[in-house]
Design a protein that fits this description.
single chain, Immunoglobulin-like, 10 strands, binds copper (II) ion
Amino acid sequence: MNIIKNVVFFILFSAFCFPTTSFADTAGKDGIWTEKCRIRYIPLKDPKAAGYMVIHNDGAEDRTVVAVTTDQAKGVMMHEMVMEGAMAKMVHLLELPIPSKGTVELKSGGIHLMFMKLNPNLKFGETIQLNLAFKNGEKVTVDAKIVSIREDREMYREE
Ligand SMILES: [Cu+2]
């Protein structure tokens, strides 16, 4: 009798402590999906790298990206290029809203990711993982390909 009680207790306890939904594989499941994820990489001693992608939100609720991280860089910032008169200025974004049924494109000259101290040993064609953290606590992991300026221009730009 006690054993059964303990088993039942354990099952309930497990259900509460280990939610059945894993945050790691939510891509696509709850409406957020991405395409054209790439990092335009300039292999200098202090590599220059900007991240671009298209983020879709097919869900019924607005979503907001609050952070992007990767184990391949010291930091990732969300930036937006804005014109002030004739001067282009970089604005640091703390939040990136993705409206319900909407799409936001991160691209050169607009909203983009900026990588601080990206791993200098990365090679063109390699893929690294980026973790998008949302305001509601969810996380979506996406694969981003390391591309050259030329590949970015020839393969990903439509204008
Ligand atoms: Cu920037």
